[in-house]
Design a protein that fits this description.
The chain is an all-alpha fold and 461 residues long. It contains 17 helices and no strands. Helix 1 runs antiparallel to helix 5 (128-156) and helix 5 packs antiparallel against helix 15 (390-406). The model is unreliable at 1-23 (pLDDT under 50).
Length: 461
């Protein structure tokens, strides 16, 4: 962490100990700036993540000349979803450790730059392995950024109710990334022939990837004005926090918390990687689209993505509203997960293969519930790990649980689709997604009885 005066930490008089901070205090200019940067990072986390479901089919056809629905095609789809996410999860865990060692600001900024540059470089890929490598570096940046951003925001707001609300609302901007990438893909499909060529081609998936460079521009401008977390800096100046140790997550006081949270985060991410992110590939097989053009099909894919993001925003807002109405953390989690069990079962076993309208409605509800669960973890995890282990613990749960264990569901779903008893590709994929999502919900409900209820409203020291 730099000791330059531009750090501006002396400009944070509004941050006081939680016991004396007034509940309704307006945000300072610097607090607004940090929230804006966190929102930018959260937005493009999802922007980069949701590129793959949109582009994986045309990408594999162009780079690998693979037939959609074939065993080789399904294998590569599973590998492209799982391998970069798992590697991102492993390195993201190391990023959480570095966030505790080096500070929240520095790691946040560099992680955003890493994933934007990697996504842009992937637009020039000439083979599937090259794309795979660049997708891995993209997901490393995404995995590190989310934990650094959540930790930063949580430590900036000492007033419990304000902290919960700010975390909820800033995470709502994650879904802005879904709107933006759906719009970017729609524009790329519509205007690809008018854009400058990439490797002498006008493939929409390349332009979509290239647009991932956008967040680097404002970040470079505002980076000198970003302060470090006051909680982390104060402890650093006093000779603490102690250097984080991964082993401490599995000591007597944190072992149960760490393993329970990691497993439940994995169950949550299964809903995304094993079900939702596979759904747009069902669109081309819908009966109503059988006689339409390839461009119309891609526009339908974009519309499904749009409904997913509308549901995502609704889920984030619903979670913020439930903060005041359901005070117990376990009860919040179970409410969303029990509803997910019903919605995902109906959606994949009955709804998504009937019509585009049913698929859009199902994606809206599925995204609503998944994003409510995602927001839950962003609010819950900072409250159960102490300052010197906060980013390390959050990162382990999100990246090992969500990005490694949870993301493996993508490989499981795509391989189950090869053997599901159904007459066509779309139904086989839908049934396999439904089986995986239902199993995750049932396991999550069973394990939730071991979820630790945080003590009090303050962040543990």
């Amino acid at each position: 962490m730099s000791d330059q005066a531009i750090d501006l930490m002396t400009a944070l008089p509004a941050i006081k100990p939680a016991e004396s901070a007034p509940a309704g205090r307006p945000l300072t200019t610097i607090q607004w700036l940090i929230c804006a940067v966190a929102c930018l990072g959260f937005t493009f986390d999802l922007y980069e993540g949701l590129m793959l479901p949109l582009i994986v089919r045309p990408l594999l056809v162009d780079l690998g000349h693979l037939a959609p629905g074939s065993r080789e095609f399904n294998l590569w789809v599973g590998l492209l979803f799982f391998v970069p996410t798992a590697i991102g999860g492993i390195f993201g865990t190391i990023g959480g450790y570095l966030t505790d060692c080096l500070g929240r600001r520095r790691v946040l900024v560099w992680s955003i730059l890493l994933y934007t540059i990697s996504a842009c470089a992937a637009s020039f890929a000439t083979s599937i392995p090259v794309f795979m490598v660049l997708r891995c570096t993209t997901m490393i940046g995404v995995s590190v950024e989310f934990v650094a951003g959540v930790t930063w925001i949580a430590e900036l707001f000492p007033v419990p109710q304000q902290r919960e609300s700010v975390l909820g609302y800033t995470q709502a901007f994650i879904n802005a990334g879904g709107f933006l990438v759906a719009g970017a893909y729609y524009l790329a499909v519509t205007f690809a022939d008018r854009l400058p060529s990439i490797w002498s081609t006008h493939q929409p998936w390349r332009y979509t990837l290239f647009s991932g460079l956008i967040p680097a521009i404002p970040l470079i401008i505002v980076r000198p004005f970003l302060p470090e977390s006051p909680v982390w800096k104060e402890k650093r100046l006093r000779g603490s926090p102690a250097r984080p140790r991964f082993a401490a997550l599995f000591g007597p006081s944190l072992r149960k918390t760490t393993w329970t949270a990691t497993l439940l985060v994995a169950c949550t991410f299964v809903l995304a990687y094993g079900a939702m992110q596979q759904t747009v590939r069902i669109v081309p097989g819908l009966p109503s689209l059988a006689q339409t053009s390839a461009r119309h099909i891609e526009h339908a894919v974009s519309s499904v993505q749009l409904f997913q993001e509308l549901g995502g925003v609704a889920g984030r807002v619903l979670f913020v509203l439930l903060i005041l109405r359901i005070p117990l953390q376990r009860s919040r989690f179970r409410a969303f997960l029990a509803a997910a069990l019903l919605v995902y079962s109906w959606m994949y076993f009955l709804g998504v293969t009937r019509s585009l309208l049913d698929l859009q409605a199902g994606m809206f509800l599925a995204a609503l519930l998944f994003n409510g669960l995602y927001s839950f973890w962003g609010n819950y995890l900072p409250r159960v790990f102490p300052t010197h282990l906060r980013a390390t613990g959050e990162s382990f749960a999100f990246n090992i649980g969500g990005k490694t264990l949870g993301a493996s569901a993508a490989l499981l779903t795509t391989q189950l689709a090869n053997v599901m008893p159904a007459p066509d590709i779309g139904q086989r994929l839908a049934y396999s997604a439904g089986f995986v999502a239902t199993a995750a919900c049932l396991i999550g409900l069973a394990v939730s009885f071991s979820l630790r209820e945080p003590e009090g409203n303050l962040l543990p020291d």
